[in-house]
Amino acid sequence: MIGRIVEVADDRRHLLLHRGFMVVRDTEGERKELGQIPLDDIAAVIANAHGLSYTNNLLVALAERGAPFVLCAANHNAVGMLLPIEGNFEQSKRIEAQIAASQPTHKRMWASVVRAKLEQQAAALEATGAPTAPLTALAAKVKSGDPENLEAQGARRYWSLLFGDGFRRDQTAGGTNGLLNYGYTVLRATTARAVVAAGLHPGIGLHHSHDNNAMRLVDDLMEPFRPMIDLKVWQLKRNGENEVSPSAKRALVRTLYDDMQTEAGATPVMVCAQKLCTSLAQVYLGERDKLDLPLPGLPLALAASLGDE
């Protein structure tokens, strides 16, 4: 099932649990109920406001359903995430296989992720009318473990081709960077849920290795989907949206429900992330040889909307 990503971005809100629903109330005046959402429909909750409060019972109920509760800073970056301890009936078996996986296996899987990311970046550039050859050439050269760090080389070319020579990726900045931060936060929450649901440990990565990063595997596996967010930000800017407005947030969230092209046919981005995480668990268990990655190309609805402009 594809759940709903719920963001609470207004100040003076209180979240609580009531009979299987997450209830949102105003904290001022008569403390009116502003809305309620069935817990079973929630894929993730993004807490992106000041003065927000919530009950422990609600957090427990979300964790029991595998729905991450994400805490955001003022720059719309995720700074904390509550995830369940148990996510899959085979979790212990899969984490043991994940820990025991050989370095060559990790390197081979990382090369697949990098190649997919570069191919999707090229597809994003193609949609904007920018040259794709620099990215497609790099994708063809990726070796096991990406020893030449072609991912970083691709990023340097990609950002300037997508947003212009003056653009610099800066997580502390607003404008375009703020839009990217918000989109990546939503994507990270979705991928985190998929990692845990697949019975994998989010802190045991393929490539990311920062000691202070508890989400290394999440950051690895979200890489092929980042260009979907990038292209949506490009489209928003083209349509005059330069800040993280409510309409821009809704557009970025909707990107995760758009269909991508896969060997099994059109599949929502959110489901593609789930299939990727499950396939990695199967690789660790020796049940398959390669990752289940989407085919190069744009989300179908996004491609259609760009064609209408």
User: Which strand order spans the largest sheet, edge to edge or round the barrel?
Assistant: 1-5-7-8
CATH architecture field of the largest domain: Up-down Bundle
Rounded to an integer in angstroms, the radius of gyration calculated over CA atoms is 19 Å
CATH topology of the largest domain: Four Helix Bundle (Hemerythrin (Met), subunit A)
> Any idea of the CATH class of the largest domain?
Mainly Alpha
- The share of residues in helices is 40-55%
Biggest sheet overview: 4 strands, mixed
Kindly describe this structure.
With 309 residues, the protein is an alpha/beta fold. It folds into 2 domains: 4-67, CRISPR-associated endonuclease Cas1, N-terminal domain (Ribosomal Protein L15, Chain: K, domain 2); 91-308, CRISPR-associated endonuclease Cas1, C-terminal domain (Four Helix Bundle (Hemerythrin (Met), subunit A)), CATH 1.20.120. 46% of the residues lie in helices and 16% in strands. It has 11 helices and 10 strands. The strands form 3 sheets. The chain has a 4-stranded mixed beta sheet. Strands 4-3-2-6 form a 4-stranded mixed beta sheet. Strands 9-10 form a two-stranded antiparallel ribbon. A hairpin with a 2-residue loop joins strand 2 and strand 3 (21-26). Helix 3 packs parallel to helix 8 and helix 8 runs antiparallel to helix 9. The longest helix has 26 residues, at 103-128. The protein is globular and about 60 Å long. It starts with a strand and ends with a helix. The model has no long low-confidence stretch (mean pLDDT 91).
